[in-house]
Amino acid sequence: MKNLVSITLIAILILLSSCTPKIITSISKNYAALDSTQEVRVIELTEEVPLQSELLGEVKVGDTGFSNKCDLPTVLAAAKLEARKVGGNAIRIVSHQLPDYASSCHRITANIYKVSSFDKVASNSVDSTATTALIIDTIQITKAAGGYKFSYMGENLTMDRLGVLSNKNATSAKYFSKAKGTTGLLQVMGFMGGALIGYPIGTFIGGGKPNWSLAAVGCGILVVSLPIVSSANNNLLKAVNAYNQSSVITRKDNFYDVKLGLNPSGLALIVQF
Fold this sequence. Notes:
Number of helices: 7
Mean pLDDT: 75
Low-confidence stretches: 11-18, 123-136, 249-265, 267-273
Number of strands: 10
Distance between the termini: 85 Å
Largest sheet: 5 strands, mixed
Helix content: 40-55%
């Protein structure tokens, strides 16, 4: 009887915990925790991070598969709680998946920041030298397994955030749209190829008779997807390069100085870029 009660209590606890959103954090630095009365600001996907801020880590709030308490206010509250635990007073949403056929939950990825002042944001700052401006305004590219990683002002960019930046330039937006248009197809092909390869391997490990022809079909699907992946990566690179080029041109055009001076012909206006 006692065992039955214990099992029932454990089952109830598991059921209750599974109703709440799934939370995953990756913290690189933390400070003293904030109490529940201290505000944690939400910086939206289209907004820039204040200048005087420090990135502490990342929080992902998603679906356990059984979650039903995952409306947007609940999800944001969970992310804010994780921020408070490490001394963060702001979260910046970098990805937001709305409820869909796959999940009835709002799912977000957010960076956690400790912000000293909310008065100034990076997008409004223009340095006095072109070199510094280029560092601020361009998207950095680094090679990663199977593709590239993109970052902006020290922040790793999700596809959602990269899309927001790309929309600031028509050429960049065009290439980004082409790249994102293949994302759904690649996800389906990857799932199908992995499943077809994994099923016979699992059967073999379990002592059954595997159908290796399924694995061959799965490998074929993955091989076919390779040029699509390459095309998507190339379009992403073109989108980022178009954004960076327009940003550099714009900033260079903004840096000039007009003053009176002397040249061999006499008094003249001197324009320095």
